[in-house]
Amino acid sequence: MDDSLQFKNIKQKESSAVQKENYKNNNLKFKDLRGISCPMNFVQTKIQLVTMQSGEKLEIWLDDGQPINNVPGSIQSEGHEVLEQVQINEDYWIVIIKKK
Fold first, then answer.
1. Is 55 left (phi over 0), alpha (psi -120 to 50) or beta?
2. The one catalytic residue among 10, 19, 34, 38
3. Residue-wise pLDDT tens digits, 52-81
4. Could you give the 3-state DSSP secondary structure of residue 23?
5. pTM to 2 decimals?
């Protein structure tokens, strides 16, 4: 969600150098969990969230199928907020989480 309270439409990712600068400026953490099966992708998301402060945002990349079906719901059941969930292609999704 941007400053005008509109959801961003993430269609393609920028170069890694630009990406890193964006994460630094927006206080957004990042974790690529593609290729990691359930429940380890959820465990790694939780580990990343533990290192963050309340209100910080985490962007995770999840494979289609079980990961996208399970992880966002599990994150919400932990009390965190899923701000955005966007399918990039048939293979993976981007999920933006706000830590409680």
1. left
2. 38
3. 999 999 999 999 999 999 999 999 999 999
4. helix
5. 0.75
